[in-house]
Specification:
Layout: H1 2-31, E1 34-39, H2 44-57, E2 62-66, E3 72-74, E4 80-82, H3 93-101, E5 108-112, H4 118-129, E6 133-136, H5 144-147, H6 151-158, E7 167-170, H7 175-187, E8 191-194, H8 202-205, H9 214-226, H10 231-240, E9 251-255, E10 258-264, H11 271-280, E11 290-297, H12 302-316, E12 320-325, H13 328-337, E13 345-347, H14 356-366, E14 371-377, H15 383-397, H16 401-408, H17 412-431
Parallel strand pairs: 1-5, 1-6, 2-5, 6-7, 7-8, 10-14, 11-12, 11-14, 12-13
Antiparallel strand pairs: 2-3, 3-4, 9-10
Helix pairs in contact: 2-9, 2-10, 6-7, 9-10, 11-12, 12-13, 15-17
Length: 432
Amino acid sequence: MVGFVLALAVLVALMWRWHRIYVDHEARIQQMHVRIHVNGIRGKSTVTRLLAGILREAGYQTLAKTTGSAAMVIHEDGNESPIQRGGAPTIMEQIDIVRQYANPDTNALVIECMAVNPVYQRVTQDQIVKGNITIITNVREDHQDVMGETLAEITDSLSNTIPHGGTLITAEEREPLRQKLARNTEARGSTFIYADPAWVSDDDLKGFDYLTFKENLAVGLAVAHVLNIPREVAIRGMRKALPDIGVVFVQKVSMEGKEIVWAPLFAVNDRESTIIGLDALRPYYQEDAVRIGILNNRYDRAVRAEKFAEIAALDLKLDYYATFGAYEEQVTERMVGFGYPRERILNLGFSKNPTLEEILDQVLDLIEGEQGLLVGLVNIHTPQAELLMDFFHHQEEVCEASELVADLGHVPETVQRRRYMISHLLKQRTSE
């Protein structure tokens, strides 16, 4: 009996403590008139950062939080703090972030959804974040074990974060999925807005020194429209926003009278995102540039190697390919089987174990004109890929910050952040 009473007392105490935490959280949330919940499959961290940049530029006291490559709290002055976790992440982290970092002057919140399970997504939106603007960046095939096997099912799962009586903004380009999102939005009494990439020009993209998608900027412009923020303020704020540590920096290096445009898309490992990524690179290179793809394959990713051989041959339409790492013969034969010319495939992986100089010589030999695009694909890790990443990283180090600022129109803090992120990402990749 004594044990039962003690257990009951502990339970009551815990319930009372949780009640107080929730009441305090509710008060903090309600003081923030703009609450943006960022969901979707790809681009959530980047969009979170862009939106926070817009709000800061427009004068909002903005707290933001990302959950992507490196979970970060982005403070009201744009500075960042890494999130230290004692265990596995849970959605309760969103409450902790608001409690620790919101102050009485904070009037805007931009927070990346960290829930995958549809039930947790609904709880996060309706009980914790209470976003009045929700972003669903796009719908892709991912997390199918919990979100559903089909794109339609995944769309419904993501729709659990649509607000009641608020606004949903999406850059999803497929009409059937957009219509489904629109119906789900209407069912919750909210306004549906399609962020059209056509709103964003190539000139808008030129202000960014990392790979930027028109869809992401269009989402920012849609939010600016909802909040009556001028377009020029929104673009300026997005350009000032520091990018996520996992973004792709596009880098140009001159060698032997030729320019190599380096785009390491190694972390993009599904067909649709790869096609979109390559298309987003167009503003960064000349029309007549020779386009070279690196198929970087690991021994423990045999299925992915086979899949990307097909994608490379049928979907990407690059001028040449170099194979790195494993499965070179199998990848080459599969590509040839799909009709890609054998003479345009170079095996530079474990079959040759080339030096950095040998890799660069082969690349330069393929560039017949003034410029070539070199794109890393499929996986991050192989000795050959790491040689290239290290080479381009050190090329970046010899550039003067003043030159980068003059060329890119960015403030020095962004240049410093860029160098830090390249260094951090390289160390992270080589240590794993």
